[in-house]
Amino acid sequence: MRLELSPRANITPLMRLAAPIAALVLAFAIAAIVIAFYGKSPLQAFDVYIVGSLSDSWALQELLVKATPLILIAIGLSYCFRSNLWNIGAEGQFVIGGLFGGWIAIATHGGEWSLVWPYVLLVGAVAGAVYGFIPAILKVRFGANEILTSLMLVNIAQLFLDYMVRGPLKDPKGMNFPQSVTFEDAALLPKVFGSDRVHFGLILAIIVVLITMVIVSRSIFGYRLRITGDAPKAASFAGFSSKTTTIIVFCISGALAGLAGASEVAGQIGQLQPTISPGYGFSAVTVAFLGRLHPVGIVLSALVLAMVMIGGENAQIMLKLPLDLTTAFQGLLLLIVLSADALVSYKFRIVRGRRG
Q1: pLDDT beyond 60 at 28
Q2: Residue 67 and residue 303 in contact, taking contact as beta carbons nearer than 8 Å
Q3: Potential cystine with 267: which of 25, 88, 189, 222 (Cβ 3.0-4.6 Å)?
Q4: What DSSP assignment string belongs to 77-119?
Q5: Residue range 260-287: mean pLDDT, rounded
Q6: What are phi and psi for residue 346, nearest 5 degrees?
Q7: Which of helix, strand or coil describes residue 348?
Q8: In contact, 135 and 146? CB cutoff 8 Å
């Protein structure tokens, strides 16, 4: 007797929709049990994590600020994941985009420039695309596993950023702190919606979402992504080169991650520091799958993850809960989402007798 997974014959849209919702509820239930083991009230934690993140205008602004890079990166990752390609190094592409975009802001510091931030975003996107191209070409040319190469490039990007802000890009008047000069106003993203926190990066995220909706549903390229991911042999017969697809989607994914990094340093931080990301590139993997790789779903899941991140910071202060608990929750959520997807696509079957 053995237990096997067999494909389900009929998978309804309702099942697909219910899977991430059920996964989110289960993840919160498990988190409540863990919080109770810490001797804290789960209801109080819910108030801090959820209600506190939506309680006032500042919290709502912060929610949008944190959701912006998650949306941009997750949309980029969805191009890869739809093609059954695994870009796990968006964090490194984010860092490289922020570094090179920030370098433009630093290079123009003290000049007579009236508008620098568009160049910051452009260079950040190009740098991210180039960094995303590296694991793609390694896979296409040498057959290297893109999961490993993209992930290892994250450490290289983080160490390179750390070296640059402690060396060539360090502020000479910064009291020896490892940081660059503060960007001038011309290099900072303009604020939008009358807010003092929400910046132009949110507008870019909305534009990217709308463009991706059209590409995925109404373009030959969107069809190419679907058929490459679902039926690689059929894609080959249709004349779609898997190597070309790999390079294109990795460059798109890297460009959007780099754009997110540039918008973060020019919109949120205002300078380069040894650390410019709290793990947006890794959290975006959860966002992409929780959102079912659909642009609208990604927006909603990015708001949920941003709310959890803000709540984790509040819980660390108000409930003395470790911030790592939030990171663990994100990992747990990803695991449950993937498990729910598997259970939607497959069902357990008990097979009697020996394998023939």
Answers
A1: yes
A2: yes
A3: 189
A4: HHHHHHTT-----HHHHHHHHHHHHHHHHHHTTTS--S--HHH
A5: 94
A6: -130, 160
A7: strand
A8: yes
- With a cut of 60, say whether residue 252 has pLDDT above it: yes
Question: Which one, of 101, 77, 99, 102, lies nearest residue 90 by Cα?
Answer: 77
Distances (CA, A) of 266 to 190, 232, 269: 9, 40, 6
Say whether pLDDT at 189 is over 80: yes
Task: List, in order, residues 6 or more apart from 273 with CB less than 8 Å away.
Answer: 165, 178, 179, 180
Check: CB of residue 127 under 8 Å from CB of residue 318.
no
Give yes or no for residue 1 having a pLDDT over 70.
Answer: no
Q: Give the whole-angstrom CA distance, residue 356 versus residue 350.
A: 15
- For the record, the structure tokens of 285 come out as 């993997």
Secondary structure letter of residue 2 according to DSSP: E
What does the alpha-carbon distance between residue 177 and residue 169 come to, in Å, rounded to a whole number?
A: 11
Q: Report the pLDDT value the prediction gives residue 48, as an integer from 0 to 100.
A: 80
Look-up of token digits 């260079």:
123
Give CA–CA dist 295/69, Å, rounded: 14
d(CA 160, CA 154): 10
Q: Is 129:255 a contact under the CB 8 Å cutoff?
A: yes
From 72-86, 141-155, 319-333, the region with the lowest mean pLDDT: 319-333
| Phi, then psi, of 348 in degrees rounded to 5 | -75, 140
Task: Answer whether 286's CB lies under 8 Å from 194's CB.
Answer: no
What does the block give as tokens for 171?
Answer: 């502020």
- Only one residue has tokens 């370098």, namely 103
Question: Per residue in 75-102, pLDDT tens?
Answer: 999 999 999 999 999 999 999 999 999 9
**What b/e string do you get for 333-350 counting C-beta neighbours within 10 Å, with b at 16 or more?**
bbebbeebbebbeeeeee
Cα separation, 266 vs 116, in Å, equals 10
Residue 285 CA neighbour count, 13 Å, CB half: 20
Residue (of 20, 50, 45) closest to 34 by Cα position:
45
- Whether this prediction's pTM lies above 0.85 is answered by yes
Provide the percentage of residues in the chain whose pLDDT is more than 70. 97
